[in-house]
Amino acid sequence: MSEGQEHKPRRLRNIAELAKLAGVSPGTVSRALADKDLVNRETRERIQALAREHGFRPNQMASRLRTGQTGVVGVVIPLGHEQKQHISDPFFMTLLGYLADALIERGYDLMLSRALPGDSAEWLERVVDSGMLDGVLLIGQSDQFATIESVAARYRPLVVWGTHREGQRHCVVGTDSDAGGRLAAQHLIARGCRRIAFFGDTRGLEIERRLAGARAAAAESGTGTRIDDFPTHLSAEEMGSQIAADLDRMDPATDAIFAASDLIAMATLRLLHERGRRVPEDIALVGFDGLPLSEQTVPQLTTIHQDIAGGAQAMVAALLARIGGSDSPSTVLAPQLIVRETA
């Protein structure tokens, strides 16, 4: 060895070599690397230090074969009703980020996919039967409620972001969309609005419930408030032109818009500005989601806030319970009205 050259510890190839170096059995090494209390702390720390020094990493594939687990959770976005919508949608990305953080903190990798069910109900069966996943998280129910129910009857480690229906099989975490729709309509009605346009695609269960809640609040108000439904694309390519057409054809007496998502609301705000319509002086505007982006609009967007971070934690906790063989009930999150400048 030349002068000044550092000695590099020999890289160990397997647990047997590390056990020989540590002077213990391979079983003790395995338990120490898994940080099991069966091995006293001093021995655990010594073995772990030797493993780091010699660049030893246990064979994860072999470990997973022994346990029958893959260490991977599938995160799937089903787009049955809006196949042109992208994973880059701000709501998807926000929830996905929180899910990824929660899974990684618990030692899981995630596999992301975007499902386009089309006319086939087998898309979810292919996911859960792939043998590559310990469990599946679905972001949204789209128009696939029946398919999800069918698979949930036989596949337990499945948790869905969406709307809860009484008596359903699948475990769901999500905001009470009906209550959120009521909050939005009640706020607009309290402002004196009597002709409200609803922008959203009600083929998706969550958005359908937001409209239903708004209409219920209007009927209960006794004010004669009318809510007109304008089906709005969720894909970025078509959303703008759809909203522009709806703004041009809606009743001139319309004095408020309830958008089914913050993304729809932000696109609407821009198009109203282009038409010289002042918000909220000429027309009030309320979104739904409470995304961080909603604070960046001018004027700032009034919205119905969903606890997306808390929902992600609840989804992962429910999934891990199910992977472990326990049951986990659905979680319904309370929406919150965030009043800013647009209404």
Derived from helix and strand composition plus strand pairing, the structural class reads alpha/beta
Helix content: 40-55%
DSSP strand (E) fraction? Answer: 15-25%
Strand order, main sheet: write it out: 2-1-3-4-5-11
Computed over alpha carbons, the radius of gyration is 26 Å
Keywords: DNA-binding, Transcription, Transcription regulation
Pfam families: LacI, Peripla_BP_3
Protein name: LacI family DNA-binding transcriptional regulator
GO molecular function: DNA-binding transcription factor activity; transcription cis-regulatory region binding
Write structural notes for this entry.
It is a single chain. It contains 12 helices and 12 strands. It has 343 residues and is of the alpha/beta class. The protein has 3 domains: 15-58, no CATH class; 72-175 and 308-331, Rossmann fold (3-Layer(aba) Sandwich); 177-305, 3-Layer(aba) Sandwich (Rossmann fold), CATH 3.40.50. A 6-stranded parallel sheet has the order 2-1-3-4-5-11. Helix 1 (15-22) packs across helix 2, helix 1 (15-22) packs across helix 3 (41-53) and helix 8 (177-190) runs parallel beside helix 9 (205-221). The model has no long low-confidence stretch (mean pLDDT 89).
Topology record:
Elements: H1 15-22, H2 26-33, H3 41-53, H4 60-67, E1 72-78, H5 90-105, E2 109-115, H6 123-128, E3 135-139, H7 145-152, E4 158-161, E5 171-175, H8 177-190, E6 195-199, H9 205-221, E7 226-230, H10 236-249, E8 256-259, H11 262-274, E9 284-289, E10 302-305, H12 308-323, E11 331-333, E12 336-338
Parallel strand pairs: 1-2, 1-3, 3-4, 4-5, 5-11, 6-7, 6-8, 8-9, 9-10
Antiparallel strand pairs: 10-12
Helix pairs in contact: 1-2, 1-3, 2-3, 5-12, 8-9, 10-11
